[in-house]
Structures are given as C-alpha cells and as structure tokens.
Design brief:
By secondary structure, the chain is α/β, with parallel strands linked by helices. The protein contains ten helices and eleven strands. Strand 4, helix 3 and strand 5 form a beta-alpha-beta unit.
C-alpha cells in the first residue's frame, strides 16, 4: 500500500499564515525522511479558516527543494479555474524541479464561491474541465500546440519546459462514479497514532471540531452528511486513530472494505494539531505501523 499526507492548510484566527506554510513544508520533509510515498496539496480559495492554499503548486515547489523521494501531488487543482497553457507550464516546471516527482491531480470543484470569485459561470465547469485537460496534455506531448476550442485557443505555441516524466506526469481525476476496477482508490482519512486510543482521540478532537465548525458555519458551502457529522462519528468512520496495533487493524479494515491501494492521511483536518504532536504521530506510524504494510 502507498501512504501519503494530505492537507488543505486551514488557518484559525489564532494562527499565523506564514507558520502554517512552514508546518506543511516541515511535515513533508519529515514524511520524506520516514519513507512515506507522497504529499497531496489541495487548492481552495476565499475562506482562510478552511484553507489558505490557493496556489498549491508554489507550495509544492518549496517542498520539492527539501525532499528527495516524496511524490508531490495536487488534490486537486481546480482545472476549470485555470488557463490550461499556463497551468501546463507550471506543473511541468514542478516536475523538472522535483526531478520527476510531480502528480497532476485535478477536479472541477463544487464550490460556487470559487467560480464566482474567478468570474467563471459554474455551469461551465464540466466543459471547461474537459477542454482544459485536452490542452494541458497537448502542451506536454506536442512540440507545437494548436487548439481552437470553445474556451481556449492556441496557435502553434511551443510550451517549455516539458515534464521529465514521459509522456507526462500521472494524471489523477477526482471522481465519485468511475468503475473501481479501472482506477486507484486512495481514501483520505484523519489520523493520529499515539501510545493509546484515549490520547490519540484527545489530540484529534479539537482539530476535527474546528473543521466541522467551519462546515456548519456555511462559508465552506458544505452540504449533506458532512454538515451533520459529529466528532464521534468522524472518529469512528473517517479516521485512523489509536495505538499502533489499533491503527494496523483499522487500515486493514479500510483496505478490505474499499480494496484501496493506499491512504492519504489528513493529520490536521482543522489545523489545530501542534506540529510537535503531529510529528510524534508520524514517527510512531513509520516505526510501528508502516512496516506491516510494506
């Protein structure tokens, strides 16, 4: 199984933006040292309590310079909100800077505030996504790109640099409806490994409550199940939490349930876990849990 980190970098009113960026860079560096496989960075706009990471590729470039083996992915770049030629250039640059470790995770996004803020009609999300992906792949695989579409045009432009990975970096598309036999299934779960379950839950509760509070507050445009979740339900259904053996058992259960090929650990869903506590959890995971699955 593959194991990685995920973060969308929420920032409470009591926290500093610069420190939160240093946190994710330090956590990624530690993940690289501990032998984890990847780090995944979300793209989110206009709601700092929920996320202060509107430009994940810039953060990814910083991570690339202090890691050696960690794959660096976006989960996800909101493709309809980008000019695809420019985005192709930026992802290719990340692939060069990381010596071939970039992963291009993309999605349409479901938050109307993002589309409103960027001046793009939300009903254009699906066609813009399809056309933009076509343009990005042309930029990576063709010497000169020509494209005359509904939303994007190019007349024989040479897009440089090309990615190191050939024919291009892996492309992951966020979806709820693909055939499971044709895709990688990598669930995102909160996580904390500690000496015992009581301590692990005590570490996670404040960050989960903060995350759920933002959803209930409405600015994140949360809906359905996510808004009605309690912290206890979250810990039971969407978390790997406990002592090392409990975490091994829980990961095995998720693997059996979903036939998943890996897990992205969202250690700090609400941004409230101190970096020191998070680092202890990561080290205990690498020492006691990871060897069971490698």
């Amino acid at each position: 199984m593959e194991f990685g980190l995920f973060d969308q970098l929420p920032c409470a009113v009591t926290q500093q933006t610069a420190i939160r960026y240093l946190d994710i860079i330090a956590q990624s560096q530690l993940a690289d040292e501990l032998g984890l496989d990847s780090v995944w960075l979300a793209e989110y706009h206009f709601n700092p309590r929920f996320s202060i990471m509107p430009a994940p590729l810039l953060v990814a470039s910083a991570i690339a310079q202090c890691t050696k083996n960690l794959k660096i992915g976006t989960a996800v770049n909101l493709l309809p909100l980008h000019q695809p030629i420019r985005l192709a250039e930026e992802v290719a640059t990340l692939d060069v800077l990381s010596q071939g470790r970039a992963i291009f995770g993309i999605g349409r996004g479901s938050n109307p505030e993002h589309y409103e803020g960027m001046g793009i009609p939300v009903d254009q999300g699906r066609p813009r996504f399809t056309e933009a992906l076509e343009v990005v792949l042309k930029c990576w695989t063709e010497y000169q790109v020509s494209h005359q579409g509904e939303y994007y045009q190019a007349n024989g432009v040479s897009v440089i640099p090309k990615p190191i990975q050939q024919p291009h970096p892996p492309v992951y598309i966020a979806s709820n409806s693909h055939d499971a036999a044709q895709v990688k299934i990598i669930p995102t779960l909160a996580a904390c490994v500690a000496e015992n379950r009581k301590k692990a839950e005590a570490i996670l509760r404040p960050t989960i409550e903060n995350y759920l509070g933002v959803l209930r507050g409405g600015r994140s445009r949360g809906s359905g199940r996510a808004v009605t979740l309690t912290c206890e339900e979250f810990l039971k259904e969407y978390a790997i939490v406990g002592d090392p053996q409990e975490c091994i058992d829980q990961i095995s259960r998720f693997k059996e349930m979903f036939d998943c090929q890996g897990i992205m650990f969202w250690h700090n869903v609400g941004g409230m876990v101190p970096n020191e506590e998070l680092s202890r959890s990561m080290k205990l995971f690498a020492d006691k849990v990871l060897p069971h699955f490698k």
